[in-house]
């Protein structure tokens, strides 16, 4: 009931802070619904309207939101690593950039942008992108992935960044899910690769309730750098190993939670381990009462 909530004596600054926190924790695939509710909560507050673009931009970058852009074959992921200094979004596949409305999720003003990558890493980036594409095509139904080259501005450190996202929204089933991972590939020595990153899963189920799952795992691996020919496949092999281990651990935790944790919160089922159909029980009772009694 927004009209009742807005009568609380909360100053404008605190209300905006609350709105920012709500947006940052919005469940996957539900950012627009959150935005509409916040507009009612803040009664279309002008300060919120001004700040909404920056809040949504942070949300989109943090969640690797994929967007379709006219003239670009594959979806472009919005990440912290492909936002140019002028705010435009860069696509390393097509070597193009575009303006992006983070609230409406609309891309426009597409243009060529050929010099945004780190030139020394481009051949490795291309081979790694090819291997990542093959991996995603095989294991993710709705997956998208991009590889970026990145150079630290204050030092000579250069690295490749892999960003993977798989999101499936099923509002008719009251279910949304979001798989996301990030891996930084660095070259500390001539014969060594350092792979650091994380994998996370967010699920929201909201039929007759509100259940959210959040799980995250950090990754830190060091492997030999044998040669350029096997470089990309070696890196993706580590990505696959870590993501498969993460998925197995999540499945195991879910089973244990269902068998032990939730068991203590609910009434024990009958020996048949099936729910009682109370409508049938009533009919059985009525039938018994109407049955002729033997003299």
TrEMBL record:
One of its GO terms (cellular component) is F-actin capping protein complex. The keyword Membrane does not apply. This is F-actin-capping protein subunit alpha. PROSITE patterns: F_ACTIN_CAPPING_A_1 (PS00748), F_ACTIN_CAPPING_A_2 (PS00749). Keywords: Actin capping, Actin-binding. InterPro entries: CapZ_alpha, CapZ_alpha/beta, CapZ_alpha/beta_2, CapZ_alpha_1, F-actin_cap_asu_CS. It comes from the Eukaryota. One of its GO terms (molecular function) is actin filament binding. F-actin-capping proteins bind in a Ca(2+)-independent manner to the fast growing ends of actin filaments (barbed end) thereby blocking the exchange of subunits at these ends. Unlike other capping proteins (such as gelsolin and severin), these proteins do not sever actin filaments. GO terms for biological process: actin cytoskeleton organization; barbed-end actin filament capping. The keyword Oxidoreductase does not apply. It comes from Trichinella nelsoni. Gene3D superfamilies: F-actin capping protein, alpha subunit, F-actin capping protein, beta subunit. Heterodimer of an alpha and a beta subunit. Belongs to the F-actin-capping protein alpha subunit family.
